[in-house]
Design a protein that fits this description.
The chain is an alpha/beta fold. It is 31% helix and 26% strand. The model has no long low-confidence stretch (mean pLDDT 91).
């Protein structure tokens, strides 16, 4: 039996998440908004997605869609929720919580929305089962999410939990670390299939590690499988969780990373060992600005150069960009994917070295507007 699900990602990158679902799971997803895609899948397929998807923060079962049409949003929302068979999703004795997410101009806030939906769930359970469910805001058995974008409403059941899906290999912090999901989507955008992937400013190694996890078809969230709220859904039959063996686990290096700080190189090696990718990554200490060498056989560069607290003077950034694109042209690297805060500067430097812009995405990260840019030679 197939259900309708929603996958949530960084705002602005839903097109790439739809691409991941197609490439890795043969699932055709529909883009619902800049941060959400919807798709049909069986419960068993969703178990696989929860274990293997790299670009997604959470997955939710879509229970109902609606829209605001009148002047009394509270009444409309409460009537909508109370008309649904809540008792099918919330069993007797299970606790619940509601999280609300709002985008657009409204006369109410997200806390109002969550309170209205929570009250309606209680009313529905009392009407349908003569039972008042327990509210648990910190550790619920069942987590409902309601999204409103302008006048469109989505009511969902969260398969993940209060926290987003995160990797367990990142045991060391970095002052401007890139989230694993973003690193993976940069790799996905590169269309890397053969040769080496190279990251000249690797930090603690997230981009090469995510590239190798992708290449080896390895599960990335098995450490969370017993914590997913998906396990509490009483209305579906769940298969026992099982780990898929890597389909073609690489035994030789596929991804290289340089960083000028020895401490971060050490951290990158620890992270790669923890992630199970140490056989296919290679991290070295090297200041690319002073020694702009690229490993032979590199087919694409995916990198997240310093920005925000790491950026320093703009002259330094321009010199680094010039070094990357000039060296890449010399070595014949056909594809460069870059996370950039200086869009015009990046494009200017790339084009002056023979590269043309083929893809551009914009998203917000840590309060900074970031552009994910793909250039081809």
């Amino acid at each position: 039996m197939a259900f309708r699900f929603i996958a949530v990602c960084n705002h602005g990158l839903s097109d790439l998440v739809a691409n991941e679902l197609k490439r890795k799971f043969s699932i055709n997803a529909q883009i619902e908004s800049l941060s959400k895609v919807s798709f049909q899948a069986s419960i068993q397929q969703v178990q696989e997605i929860l274990l293997f998807a790299q670009g997604i923060y959470r997955v939710c079962l879509l229970l109902s869609k609606s829209s605001l049409t009148g002047n009394d949003p509270k009444l409309e929302i409460q009537q909508w929720i109370e008309s649904l068979p809540i008792h099918e999703y919330l069993a007797i004795g299970q606790s619940f919580a509601v999280r609300a997410h709002r985008s657009g101009s409204h006369e109410f806030n997200s806390m109002d929305l969550a309170a209205w939906v929570g009250e309606s769930i209680i009313n529905a359970m009392q009407s349908q089962k003569n039972h008042r469910p327990i509210v648990n805001l910190t550790s619920p058995d069942i987590l409902f999410r309601v999204y409103i974008i302008d006048n469109s409403l989505w009511f969902c059941l969260d398969a993940v939990g209060l926290d987003a899906i995160e990797r367990n290999y990142r045991v060391y912090d970095h002052p401007a670390g890139l989230r694993s999901q973003l690193a993976f989507l940069g790799v996905l955008l590169s269309n890397w299939t053969t040769g080496f992937l190279f990251d000249p400013t690797t930090g603690t190694g997230t981009i090469p590690i995510e590239a190798c996890l992708f290449k080896s078809h390895a599960p990335v969230s098995s450490h969370l499988q017993n914590k997913f709220l998906f396990n509490n859904w009483s209305f579906v039959e769940l298969d026992d969780w099982f780990l898929y063996p890597p389909k073609d686990s690489p035994q030789s290096c596929l991804a290289f990373g340089y960083d000028k700080t020895s401490r971060f190189v050490t951290y990158a090696n620890v992270h790669s060992e923890t992630a199970g990718t140490s056989s296919c990554t290679n991290f070295d200490q090297n200041n690319f600005l002073k020694s702009p060498t690229i490993p032979d056989g590199t087919e694409c560069i995916v990198y997240n150069p310093p920005f925000g607290v790491r950026m320093g003077k703009i002259q330094y950034i321009q010199r680094l960009y010039n070094s990357v694109y000039h060296s890449s042209q010399d070595f014949g690297v056909p594809v460069i994917v870059q996370f950039a805060t200086k869009k015009k500067l990046t494009q200017s430097v790339a084009e002056s070295n023979g590269y043309s812009l083929s893809s551009l995405y914009k998203f917000n990260y840590g309060g900074i507007t970031v552009h994910l840019m793909k250039f081809i030679l």
